[in-house]
Design a protein that fits this description.
CATH topology of the largest domain: Ribosomal Protein S5, domain 2
Number of domains: 2
Radius of gyration: 21 Å
Strand order of the largest sheet: 5-4-6-3-1-13
Number of strands: 13
Oligomer: single chain
Bound molecules: alpha-D-galactopyranose
Shape: globular
Order of helices and strands: HEEEEEHEHHHEEEHHHHHEEHEE
Distance between the termini: 7 Å
Helix content: 25-40%
Largest sheet: 6 strands, mixed
CATH architecture of the largest domain: 2-Layer Sandwich
Number of helices: 11
Structural class: alpha+beta
Length: 397
């Protein structure tokens, strides 16, 4: 195999694990990134707008054919070997289910099989995975794993599937096999990611419009604060938000909240009796409006003006959608107080990461400000790092 130096670290490590286990070279090596969402939270399952970007971190997957017809998956981050008999997968039966982290890989194999893709007809496959996406931090580590496995299984079987079609299949895996009622944003970000760009995505048409996001070129940095408050999407809160949004759309007689604009909002709210549903609707409708504004600012090159919209998004998630926790509120407030142009929680909520748009010269001050606030509150020390918009899922070897 050729030059390994430009490979992302997890791809290098996945290939090394395969070599160590089998003494042979990988047939193929793939990489799929995690994401941060710049803005547009809980809008995707309302058929609205989102603006994520793919991270430099992700999941590497190295493959090698086997003599049988199994998919056998190992991960550098977990113990154990997951043996998947693709033909026997069935989310509705106990025997056909794979639990734990292997369930994400099995879900993808199941969704691809259901769509008619023959992954193991010729032979089975060993898949060695390795990740550098912090797990449980709201940076989409599980979607990165699913997208890496999907690309690796298809690639090894010589099958090509368009990125958007694959994102839909990965969502099916997540919704119908894993059982998490997530939307389409994370898979689209991982599969369509583009260096130096955020992805403006219309989740109804599934049209992707990359918009330039090169913070460094504007003397800015996108700082991520991993609050280390663990978040989990499979719990009831995410599903509960989804049903409130559906109740809102139903009360307003529209197919989805995407169909309500900021201009219609006051009239729409007056027609909703339930106070909680009213607040959920207000978040989604104003958030869609903010995504459109941020996308327009990025297109016109006015990155600094994005800051206040990020902060407004945070306030809306805190007060109207009620998906923040004290650690993320403190991080967002402290970042702003220490000089960030704007800050917001990113991802599904109830923990995870905060992003802050910061002048490059202020990064250290903002990091110090957040750490000091955490210390004062007695919270676990946060991790902070600067990220750049990076390329999406790809074959690297
Ligand atoms: C999770 C889901 C996404 C999206 C976000 C909230 O990341 O996977 O589909 O709903 O939460 O914006």
């Amino acid at each position: 195999m050729t030059d390994r130096s430009p490979w992302p670290e997890p791809a290098v490590r996945a290939a090394d694990q395969l070599r160590a286990a089998s003494g042979a070279e990988p047939e193929q090596v793939w990489f799929a990134p995690g994401r941060v969402n710049l803005i547009g939270e809980h809008t995707d399952y309302n058929e609205g707008f989102v603006l994520p970007l793919a991270l430099p971190f992700g999941v590497g997957a190295a493959t090698r054919s086997r003599d049988d017809h199994l998919v056998v998956v190992r991960s550098g981050q977990a113990d154990g070997v997951v043996e998947i008999d693709v033909a026997a997968l069935d989310p509705a039966s106990e025997d056909g289910r794979v639990e734990g982290w292997g369930g994400y890989a099995a879900g993808v194999a199941w969704a691809l099989r259901e769509a008619g893709h023959d992954l193991v007809g010729r032979s089975g496959v060993d898949v060695f995975l390795d990740s550098d996406v912090p797990s449980g931090a709201g940076l989409s580590s599980s979607h990165a794993l699913e997208c890496a496995v999907a690309r690796a299984l298809l690639g090894r079987a010589g099958l090509e599937v368009d990125a958007t079609e694959l994102a839909l299949l990965v969502r099916t895996a997540e919704n119908d096999y894993v059982g998490a009622p997530t939307g389409i944003m994370d898979q689209m970000a991982s599969l369509h990611g583009l260096d130096g760009h955020a992805l403006f995505l219309d989740t109804r048409s599934l049209e992707v419009d990359p918009v330039p996001f090169d913070a460094a070129a504007h003397d800015l940095a996108l700082l991520v604060v991993d609050t280390r408050a663990p978040h989990a999407l499979v719990d009831g809160e995410y599903a509960e938000r989804r049903s409130s949004c559906e109740a809102g759309a139903h009360a307003l007689g529209v197919p989805a909240l995407r169909d309500v604009t900021v201009d219609d909002l006051d009239d729409a709210l007056a027609r909703i009796d339930d106070e909680v549903v009213r607040r959920r609707v207000r978040h989604v409708v104003t958030e869609d409006g903010r995504v459109l504004e941020v996308a327009a600012l990025l297109r016109s090159g006015d990155l600094r003006a994005v800051g206040p919209l990020l902060s407004a998004s945070h306030t809306s998630m805190r007060d109207d959608f009620e998906i923040t926790v004290p650690q993320v509120d403190v991080a967002a407030e402290a970042a702003e107080r220490s000089g960030a142009l704007g800050a917001r929680m990113t991802g599904g909520g109830f923990g995870g990461c905060v992003i802050a748009l910061v002048l490059r010269q202020d990064v250290a001050a903002v990091e110090a400000g957040v750490r000091a606030a955490y210390d004062e509150h007695g919270f676990t020390e946060p991790r902070t790092f600067v990220v750049t918009a990076s390329a999406g899922a790809r074959r690297v070897g």
